[in-house]
Amino acid sequence: MQAMHIRKKQTALAVSTALICMHAAMADDDVQMAPVTVVGHYDNAVGSSDAASQGVVRGSTLKDLPLLRPGEILETVPGLVVTQHSGDGKANQYFLRGYNLDHGTDFATTVNGVPANMPTNAHGQGYSDLNFVMPELVDRIDYRKGPYFAGNGDFSSAGSADILYVKKLDQSIVNLTVGAEGYRREVAAGSITLGAPVQQSAKGAGSALIDQGPTLLGALELEHNDGPWAVKEGFKKTNAFARLSDGGSTNGWSIDATYYDAQWNSTDQVPLALIQSGQLCRYCAMDPTDGGNSTRAIVSGEWHSHDADGYTKVAAFAEHEQMALWSDFTFFELRPATGDQFQQAESRNIFGAQFVKGWNHTLFGHDSVTEAGLQLRHDNIDVSLDNSQARVPYQTVTNDQVGETMSSLYLQNTTSWNDWFRTLAGVRGDAVAMNMTSYSLPQNSGAAAGKKLSPKLSLIFGPWAKTEFFMNAGKGFHSNDARGVIDKIDPTTGDAATAVPSLAGSVGKEIGLRSEWVDGLQSSLALWSLNSDSEIVYAADSAIGSTSPNGASKRYGIEWNNHWIANRWLLIDADMAWTHARYATPGANNSAGDFIPNAAGRVGLFRATLHDLGPWTVGLETRYIGPYPLAQDGSLIAPSAMVTNLRLQRELTRNVSVAVDALNLFNRQYYDIAYEQDYQVSPASPVTPNGVTVHPGEPRAIRVTLALKF
To answer: Which residue from 383, 374, 372 is spatially nearest to 353, judged by alpha carbons?
Structure first.
């Protein structure tokens, strides 16, 4: 007997690649059916979210996508684009809603409940390095855009994403990948149930041995890559993950351990004029000794319980992270005798915990859920900036020990007032306490604190004709680098430092809709605005080492996302976003104009996935970033960038398959990132003011993966 069951809120869009497992046993007039498991690409059906821009990406999506770097898994979040301006071990650049998020300043990311963003980071505020993520282990990505959700705090003004791993694998896997320019990657992962099998019987179905008890999941990843660069990248990564867990989504627990280590040489951005004139090859470096290393070790755990009265969640983590980066963006402008390379280094210990309690109840006779949460995080950071030559530091710019504690409380209520109207209302309070001991400039030692109260409100109407409507509003914030907040003296000029608030606020609004009116097509449309009190960030580069005072900003835009199951074998995604981003006051920052440099105004993504073509599966993806300003007066514009990636997979046997990835399929010449930058290319050459530096996108590369299951 065959049957199919799909819950009311799940549409065909969520089961495009459904694996439906059923067992039916008949005894007398009774039919016993085992639970049905449905695994799809998306879980964004009508009735499943509280904003048009909120959703869930299933991990199965990633199996069909060609990925140049691990961080690109976030490109499954509609409207978000991921690039790189340095070596593969450095955090990516993220573009969303008119923000060049640098390395994560206004987009909060967690991996298995552990925050990825690093405040008071050696390189950039909110630095979010996702190179330790293993795409093969991802169960789902929960994403939200805008500051409308009380559970999200620091760095989440533009949005947030929670990357969650599976608790067990159906089969152990070994993936072996080889590719151009010395690319090699090996991944091995598997899980085992530690409890003894028990006899379980079902009415009319006999009995069977069922594994019960805690499950141990383990994975190991090794990677090497030289890339297309004239100076070989020599990227080496060791990445390990282990999880012990028990229970399910209702009641259960897990303990995780992560270890990651990477070293690399980097070809940072170089002068565009030198590439155009032929003086510098497209993939050449200005300083062959740039690069970096990064290490992190994480232990985390969570426990959750759910019953008819409500739910409880408890989580905690401890992390040790180290990083060193050697970069050179101005070449010989500052120090002609030695070159302008600088070293950014940090060693950090992080401790965090979260307690969440939810109650199911009625409010004025209507079904309601109230959730209260407490979140704590403490970072103990040794962070420094040094001038260096060939990776050897010779002059200290800053050397600080920083303690930073963020404590947060929130309360959120969801109430269904009738069949077509529900509300999500919340309030969040955050307090940060910073203290710093400056070893290089004792006058800069001190302490600071700040508080923010952030109300949130969402109104959800419908559905009518398989369409629902949303109105969302809320306040958010990002913290500023403790050095920029506490410094009294600018370490590079000796002048009085610019005063910086510890928390920079934002206000976001959105109206949107989500519809499944056309069978097989799920569409969402969002019109949004996001105003930030300031774009102030701490710039930890050798020429600065202090605060860059940038003015308040205003952004608004439109996002249109579409997921279409054309038929049983073809799934199409088309996501488009348009943004208008400006400084709130023309002439802000003592500069002409009101353009926000590196704020991409148009981004788009087209993805097609073909299944059930006999043993074949095909994944095709094209990413587009439109032109964006490099200068505040709009005089310099970065060109658009478009790149297409292709994956062809063939199942050789039930447990053996081969995949071929063609990255940058059409071998287009494009730039991952461009900047306005003063520089001097040699000790004897003149300074180039308002020049343009670029990091070229990588040329076409072919990678072949042999995937084994057992």
So the answer is: 374
